[in-house]
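fwd from M.: "can u put these together and see what the complex looks like"

so here's what she sent:
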Amino acid sequence: MTNYEANPDTPDATLGIGNRQSAIGDPRLAAIWNALESVTDPEIPVLSVVDMGIVADVRVEEDSVAVDMTPTFVGCPAVDVMRSAIHDAVAALGERNVAVNVVFDPPWTSDRITEKGRERLLAFGLAPPKREGTRGLRDGGTQKSRAGSARRSFVPLDVERLERVACPFCHSTNTTMESMFGPTLCRSIHYCNDCLQSFEHFKNV
Amino acid sequence: MTGYPTLADLTDSSRGAVIDLLFRMADDEIVLGHRDSEWTGHGPILEEDIAFSSLSQDEMGHALMYYQMLHELGEADPDTLAFGRKPGEYRCASLVSLPNNRDWAFCVVRQFLYDAAEGVRLAALSEGSLVPLAQLARKLRGEEKYHLMHGRMWVVRLGKGTDESRRRVQKALDLAFPYALGLFEPTNADAALADAAICPREANLCAQWLAFVGSILDEAGLTLPDGAEPVYGGRAGRHHESLSRLLEDMQLVYKIDPAAKW
């Protein structure tokens, strides 16, 4: 089992994408990662499951492949669709035994979205989530100490932090949050007071 | 930490206790999710229509996760558990089945009290000894923070709003609170769960919940009713009359053809 650990100071594209770097020397693994890049989020078709940080790990044995996926929101109906699509994309390479496992370790957080993913969200007109430093590392928790998090994270977030999200169209932060919920579980609805347009924001989770 | 790395590592006594806990949590979620969904198309403002629809989707997703874990522990498949049981077999607290009565203030207060209780429970489970449940709990806490943000925002806004909003939200609180205490009804599983360090006793969770809820209500200028008697029975399958009618609605489509492929 890969023990991937991100460098917290590196906001780069490899953040949160499992053992992709070790695929460089392994054509079979590289082919699988490439295939996964073609599996897109059905709600946000410019994003692949790799960009979203949904692929937690890929393991190859002689005759089988296992892909671990960590779902964004467990209630999201796209999760099942992506799971089938991941299976089919790997099977299409000729792999005969493909298992796709839903895992909660590491838990998905919006920090797992890669830099490329954030750029694509912005180009799509969706304000990307801010980096929080809660990447759900494989050691089983967030970066905060476990005792500390039990006390602290029971305080609900302040609504204030969701105001002033940058507008994806004109980049102004003179914006307001209209609703902390949106058309899908991952989005909130905002309004830009400068360019006078509504926009959606990918929620920080 | 030792404890239970997988579900298969549970001992017989702790296994039974975990099944009991999961049924309580799953049944609370799916029934509340159903009530939330009844606001879709009927919210007082569009943003609240969207909010309750989203909350509903989250609750149902969480229910599915618990039902899947129950299935791994030998119970029936999630669809059968969710839609195929009789009212007396559900383990939800009465709070979650109470009718909406088109009373949005009541529903906001009910959701807030419930989400606060769930927050306390998930925080405890995240530090517990049953690893798969701890991992799931950690994941769900991230999703739940928006529920609490929403609940706190509205309870404070309504409490500090006008005379009418304060009166109506206080009335909702007076009605909901005894039923909310029922979320922490003690069960036969408490001792085993606490001894196995999987989940603290219900009384312990209730005390944490009261402290948290109390601080938000202080901020809102609202008070908890004095001398409220908890409404128990739900965890033992003795439910408020509203559950039977809710389940008739919720199970209707499934029961037309349980074997149908969707």
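replying to her w this: The two ends of chain B are 43 Å apart (CA to CA).
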